[in-house]
Amino acid sequence: MNVITASNSQSGTPGLIRRLGKALSTPFDPEDYLALFDPLQSAREIRARVIGVQRESDQAVTLTLQPNRLWKGHRAGQHVLLGVEIEGVRHQRCFSLSSAPGGAPTISVKRQGRGGVSDHLVNRCREGDLLTLAEPAGEFVLPDPVPERLLMVTAGSGITPVHSIVKSLLASNFDGKVTWVHFERRYRDLMLSDSLAQLRRDPRLDLRLVLSGDSPRDGDQAGRLDEHWLTDNIADAAARTVFTCGPAGFLDTVMDWHGEHGRAPLFHERFKAAPVVAGEGGRLYFSRTGGQAEAAAGVSLLEAAEQAGLKPKHGCRMGICHTCKCKVSKGRVRDLQSGKSRELNGQEVRICVHAAEGDVELDL
Amino acid sequence: MNAKVDHFDPIVFERPGVTLTRSQVDAFGREIDALREEIMADLGEQDARYIRRLVRTQKGMELAGRGLLFLGVLPPAWLAGTALLSVSKILENMEIGHNVMHAQWDWLGDPALDSSTYDWDNTCPAEQWKHSHNYMHHTFTNVVGKDRDVGYGIMRMSEEQRWNPAYLFQPAYNWVLASLFQWGVAFHDLEVERVLKGEKSFAEYRAQRRKIMKKVRKQVGKDYLLFPLLAGPFAPWVLAGNATANLTRNLWSYLIIFCGHFTEHAEMFSEAEIENETRGQWYLRQLLGSSNLEGGPLFHIMSGNLSHQIEHHLFPDMPSNRYKQVAPKVREIAERYGLHYNSGRLSRQFGTVLKRINRLALPSRRKPKNATV
């Protein structure tokens, strides 16, 4: 009850009081002072406190977050750029939200073993830690109206956005059927298993676990995805709207299968950048700092700038968060994901996923 | 160091008492570069803790100070409130604001301490400060005619500036500038003298002035209108406390900043000298044009570590808490190359600044080499 009252009075703060607070704290925000007492307070970024750490395995955790009032919720399937301080420095990475919209958001993270954000969250994150979140983003969401026949195909940590989608779907008055095939190596790699066990009881969901490295238990299957698997194992697979998420090779298999057989739309979410297509390379001119640098073929503008000693703003380094957007005054760039090359005159590009083709002048 | 005359290694830096060849200047530059690399590679959690703790301390002092001023009718509360607010304003402008806007803390990735978005508790808009200070002053340090911080367009701080009778009054109006220092800083980037000379468009001047006035309204509104009004019958005490805090901050920042480049041995340079300047030569100019102040740890923090003016000018984007650590190494390198490392206590250094102001109020006996402005 307390919580509800507090959040109501906050969101209902009259504009006048807010303006007075702003005028009294100028050039800062009232939150900069309130943060002395409550570190979640901020006027410029969504800060969140970790209020639950659930060990999924020794390789993964699910973190339950309590964001400040700047958080406006997410749509099931969306991802969020999450920031965490490691040795004083803010590191950012995108994670799919694994929770259904409405309650406290959760993210489920698997260790990558490269010492980055994921490893930090799995190894070190404790209740009470502070994180930052950007606005949730992404189009990996259910269309409106929701298709009656849905097929979810996931592998590994690709489970997280689909978990959010299925959970919110089953919480609604959805009266169709959803089939969800999840591929995993071993049982101990499986994330969100408690929640899956609960969801499984819903008759509208047909959840199948397919294991490639463990002997399957009651009702689960052995095997791995190939170009025939979906046609062979799912009745009428080609007629269903497909949602798929997982490692790059896995996604390629699903998308190739869909390209050949699919008759309904396919939605996919890619966690890793597509293999780099070699561009021509070129010379970078940094208009703000005055330097220049050679950028090899296939090396992103961001990497090339960093090699030249600059520290451009960036986030995910995989083209989805748009933090690194930077103006290209003139030049030709190649999109490392699509392989498409285009001429720019003063437009902004995400420098983490574009490479130079010839001379490129950057606002860095 | 003794310079040999060598066709392949010409003398490229000559100042009273020091002559350096091309290869010596390059070697000097590499040594300074190496110092920078060493520190920048070592930045981490401790530095982050330092600046965050400082911000919390400063904000806490400000809240406490403003709170006490509401009880300012009691003299001890007024004194303590005014002192806390003064110190917090000094810390915010100098050790936090100035350094954050230099991008010293951009590496944290914290939007609250990012040079592109930070604005300080000062009538000067951040964007204009970054232009006049980070770019103009730090690039063209002590180059007469280029660095507008040499006299701020109203004072004669170098022999190379042509004398005129108005300068006779500079020993007096120096104190007016000191008291109103934030206002001088606010209107500095307008470059009125360049507008008058037709070097800068009136439209640009007007656009800048509009931004300044917008910020001035907010700053004045806060300290001289809203907080006093909020105090109701105690308004006069709050008003007086706020005004005193602003004045204290003005005098203190003036004092520290004038000791940075206008002491007895701080050298001035001509535009001709910086043509085709290499990085090593730029470092030399920063070293010889700046002067340090000696004191304890608290003094360094209160001066925004501009007491390490030399180190700040060599490494403007290095977190200021590290200057103390590099200073002895800079000094050692400077001495090895026979360069004067200008350092002294505040009283002595400021004494020489006043001497310079008084001396240059009068016309110079010798004819300047190439007088400008």
From TrEMBL, chain A:
Residue span, 2Fe-2S ferredoxin-type domain: 282-364
SUPFAM superfamilies: 2Fe-2S ferredoxin-like, Ferredoxin reductase-like, C-terminal NADP-linked domain, Riboflavin synthase domain-like
Domain FAD-binding FR-type: 43-143
Record InterPro entries: 2Fe-2S_ferredoxin-like_sf, 2Fe-2S_ferredoxin-type, Beta-grasp_dom_sf, FAD-bd_FR_type, FNR_nucleotide-bd, MRET, OxRdtase_FAD/NAD-bd, Riboflavin_synthase-like_b-brl
Superkingdom of source: Bacteria
Gene3D superfamilies xrefs: 3.10.20.30, Nucleotide-binding domain of ferredoxin-NADP reductase (FNR) module, Translation factors
Protein name per the record: Ferredoxin
Phylogenetic lineage: Bacteria, Pseudomonadati, Pseudomonadota, Gammaproteobacteria, Oceanospirillales
TrEMBL record, chain B:
Residue ranges of the TM segments: 63-85
Tree of life domain: Bacteria
InterPro entries associated with the record: FA_desaturase_dom, Fatty_acid_desaturase
Keywords: Membrane, Transmembrane, Transmembrane helix
Domain Fatty acid desaturase: 77-343
Protein name listed in UniProt: Fatty acid desaturase
Species this protein is from: Alloalcanivorax venustensis ISO4
